[in-house]
Specification:
about 350 residues; alpha/beta; Urease, subunit C, domain 1; TIM Barrel; 8-stranded parallel beta sheet; about 25% helix; binds zinc ion
Length: about 350
């Protein structure tokens, strides 16, 4: 039994200064004698981060020849992530199928399934997606992957011919469709939402933007009810003011911080590191080397409350997968402890210190 003592704990009702007590893999109400005490005075205690969009960690990718999902899970946990979706970039179907069939690792962050970021995307908004692997929308192809393993989210460009059928087929099987890598109009996006799409992938990046007469996919992301909107809060992919605008429009229950981390996805020289981001040699942003603790720290620095920033890194992305990760007795002890500078001090995954 472990009692985390002296920290400020984020609970459903706001901040609490009570001990957070962990017994085995679960949070319990109060410590009995004999609990080991971990002094975390001055620290913040929050639900572990949930990354819905992560391709790699610490130099290791989730797919391809060098894939090592177990190593990714361990590296993510060290950064405060306690659950994640292994996220694929567009690739041959066999490579995607192989990722979907990979058993979840038994140590480190919990892999909740797969996010297929493509291959049903727009070639004119591909970003760093390999255009040679993009494919026309195809329901039977998509279902062959969905039936192979735990696909939880699929990113689709809504303007592709047949995209609405794809949205309906996926959502009817419990897979959330997230709109992205799209050159489509606001009307295309709204039609996909009406067909069941439930989110937007890395809002503002690789999509049509908001203008006065054409609101684009960004306009739908800001205004369509019920969407879960991803954003990369590294200060490079998206301007801080745009992150604030998204937060103001949707509130913390409608925005999920994602890392879109691609650190290790490509051999040396293909992606060039530029601070906390990675670029193609022509300068195109390819993704980040960001951790969600940095996203939280950035957001707080940009004027978003700590409570909201932590919610967008944990509770909200978890809820989008049907999970409640709030720190109450009976729940799994997935916990991150951040120091006064919001750097990761301790991480518990199912009660196990990482
Ligand atoms: Zn991505």
């Amino acid at each position: 039994m472990l009692a985390l003592r002296g920290g400020r704990v984020l609970t459903a009702g706001g901040w609490s200064s009570a001990d957070l007590v962990v017994d085995g893999s679960s949070i319990i109400a109060t410590a009995t004698s004999g609990a080991e005490v971990l002094d975390i005075s001055g620290c913040v205690v929050a639900p572990g981060f949930v990354d819905l969009h992560v391709h790699a960690a610490a130099g290791t990718p989730v797919q391809g020849e060098r894939a090592d999902l177990a190593a990714v899970a361990v590296a993510l946990a060290r950064g405060g992530v306690t659950s994640f979706l292994a996220t694929a970039v567009s690739a041959p179907l066999d490579e995607l199928r192989s990722l979907v069939r990979t058993p979840a690792p038994t140590a480190g962050a919990r892999c909740l399934g797969v996010h297929l970021e493509g291959p049903w995307l727009s070639s004119s908004s591909a970003g760093a997606q390999p255009v040679q692997h993009l494919r026309p929308a195809d329901v039977s192809e998509a279902l062959s992957l969905v039936t192979a393993g735990p696909v939880r989210v699929v990113t689709v460009a809504p303007e592709l011919p047949g995209a609405l059928d794809l949205v309906r087929a996926l959502t009817s099987r419990g897979v959330r469709v997230s709109l992205g890598h799209s050159a489509g109009s606001y009307a295309d996006a709204v039609a996909a939402v009406r067909a069941g799409a439930g989110g937007v992938t890395h809002c503002f990046n690789a999509m049509t933007t908001l203008t006065g007469r054409e609101p684009g996919l960004v306009g739908a992301a800001l205004t369509e009810p019920g969407l879960l909107v991803e954003v990369i809060a590294d200060g490079v992919h998206v301007h801080p003011a745009s992150v604030r605008a998204l937060h103001a429009a949707r509130g913390p229950a409608g925005v999920a911080f994602v890392s879109d981390c691609v650190d290790g996805c490509a051999p040396a020289g293909v992606l060039v590191r530029d601070g906390d981001v990675l670029r193609l040699p022509d300068g195109t942003l390819a993704g980040s080397a960001l951790g969600l603790a940095e996203a939280v720290r950035n957001a707080v620095g940009w004027g978003i409350s700590l409570e909201d920033a932590l919610t967008m890194a944990s509770l909200t992305p978890a809820r989008s997968l049907g999970l409640d990760v709030s720190l109450v007795p009976g729940r799994r002890a997935d916990v991150v402890v951040l120091d006064e500078d919001l750097r990761v001090r301790h991480v518990l995954v199912a009660g196990v210190l990482q």
